[in-house]
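Workshop exercise sheet. Pairs work together: one partner reads the sequence aloud, the other fills in the structure field after running the prediction. Swap roles for the next sheet.
Pair: D.N. / O.F.
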Amino acid sequence: MTDPILEQKPKLADTVRRLVAAYRPERIYLFGSVARGDSGPDSDYDLLVIVPNDAPPEQRDGGLAYRALWGVGTAVDAVVCTSGWFHARTHLKASLPGTVLREGRLLHAA
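Structure field:
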């Protein structure tokens, strides 16, 4: 099932497509103000890209995201982590994984 926000925000959909092509991630979550619905005109897209534990080092590098998103035409903050790192911290409310599970929106699942 596709999150309707991808149809409403074409630049976000393009961003997700580019990240999927670059990383082949297990999941991509949108979090932050856009996910919560309280974004303003200067808000960026906050994305958590979850890669497999055995992903090669270059696919764990956030720099790959910025190269993939060059010219996308919108501000994006992409955080990359492994699935093991993510799942080990989901029980911590103050952690990024805990926040993403509470407030985030799943945009891609392999």
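Discussion prompt: The helical segments are 5-8, 10-23, 33-36, 62-68, 83-89, 96-103. What would you look at next?
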